[in-house]
Amino acid sequence: MSSSWDECSHEVKDFVRNVVDEIKAILKDGFVGFYVHGSLAMGGFNPTRSDVDVLVVTKRELTIGENEKLATVLLNVSNDPYPVEISVLTEEHLRDWKHPCFYEFHYSEAWREPYELALSNEDVEYIADLKGEDPDLAAHLTILNQRGICIEGPPIRALFPSIPRSDYVASILYDYDDCLRDIEENPVYCVLNIVRVYWYLHDGEISSKQEAGKWGRKGFPREISRTIEKAYENYSGLKEHSFEESELLAVKEYFRPRVTDLIKHKEGK
After folding, report:
1. Across residues 135-156, what is the average pLDDT?
2. Rounded distance between C-alpha atoms, residue 114 and residue 241, angstroms
3. Residue 148 contacts by C-beta under 8 Å, 6 or more apart in sequence?
């Protein structure tokens, strides 16, 4: 069963509150705010498969020690029971917006193994060196501005810049290209993400993966809509489907020329 922040269980809210408290204890007077975006903000949060997507803002750059402590905390709290994807940004990088945006710290479950290895080897400088630029942040901030949740800190509109459309398009196309490549390895995420990129380029609709899947169940050729519906049902926890290589290839080959055409004619590229 999917939910939003307003509708989610006390367990989810207590989990998020605990993450806030852990991060504030590390950043101390450098802490500015803690914000939720993604499925938990947009109404598509599935406790059995969704990440808790977070942006944290600080007054200054992080020290090596703070990076080490954040990595340790995230390794402990993420996946217990909900996976966390978090990026830490400074106020300066928000004021002087540039795509791709620079981040001070990032964690997701894809980063668990290198963090564990670095900590076990006491290589804390390796963790600090992982800061850098992330093209996904333009999309995250656009969604935050549209539908995000301020858990603690200044209001979203008072702190985060308005992201130029061109930066948002570049950001979602970066993820879209990954999905074309990885659709067989991660069919649910990739099918739904390809649909939401198409929907935005076609109609200007900023949507969650779940919303895009629901929208995409009709209006396309039957075999394409059926694969989208399967991905939607998997993501929403309604049913579990497997996917044939041929149907995933069909989705990729159906949307690729259409997305290319929309980019060419609507984005002027």
Report:
1. 98
2. 32
3. 35, 36, 37, 41, 55, 156
Q: Give me the torsion for CA of 211, 144, 178, 102, rounded to 10°.
A: 180
Decide the pairing of beta strands 84-90 and 52-58: parallel
CA distance 215 to 232: 10
Q: What is the average pLDDT across 69-77?
A: 97
Q: How far apart are CA 4 and CA 245, in angstroms?
A: 33
Q: What is the pTM of this model?
A: 0.94
Match domain 10-161 to its CATH number in 3.40.50.150, 3.30.460.10, 1.10.3210.10, 3.20.20.60: 3.30.460.10
Parse the chain into domains and list their residue ranges.
10-161, 166-266
Rounded to the nearest 10°, the torsion over CA 266, 145, 53, 31 is 140
The DSSP string of 204-219 is -----HHHHHHHHTSS
Beta bridge partners of 90: 58
In single-letter form, the type of residue at position 97 comes to W
pLDDT in tens, 88-130: 999 999 999 999 999 999 999 999 999 999 999 999 889 888 8
- Rounded to the nearest 10 degrees, the angle between the axes of helix 165-182 and helix 245-266 is 160
